[in-house]
Amino acid sequence: LCGQSLPLQATEMPDEIAKSVAPIIKNLYDITLNWVPVVFSNYKMAFWHGGCAWIFKMTAESPMAAFFQLRSVFAHSKTYLKLYDREEVVAHESAHVGRMLFEEPKFEEILAYRTAKTSFRKFFGPMIQSPWESILFFVLFLGAIIGELYTIFAGNLNPGWILTFDLIKFSTVALLLAGIVRVVWRQKQLKQCLKNLKSCLGSDEKANAVVY
What we know:
mainly alpha, 3-stranded mixed β-sheet, globular
């Protein structure tokens, strides 16, 4: 966005949202983000996106800045599709904004997902680290379903098509397993790091702040 005007109108974070999110990020990472504006808009969002944080510079000389973009429904509702929780989305994106000057992608999502409300999402949420990984998995998964349905209803298939569908299914499973192995390994690294920091600093609170 450097040198461009923003296509959205940002406003201050509503008090209801700010007050519910502030204790989460303060207790976990010892940060306060009372300056970040918010936009309630579905602009360029896929239907599965609950929200995101935009990090940008208006000019080459400007400091880094950020704002939250949340789905329009979050302006008056706490949930979306019964899957996304507004408080959780904002807390997650706050973790990204708080680290916006760091270039450390390996643990970025792992730290952000520590704000999740369930143990499952905290641990396995960061299994996919980047947009291209989620798109690749979605395309492969969809291809595997289409291939399976086509095999069932089309009857006899050319061996070449059978091989193609088998490769798609294999690739989908392989990508899923690779993501699981990676996130388990990195969660183990983070756990050991926090343990070491706690032994040096004397408390979980300080360890969490420092690792962040």
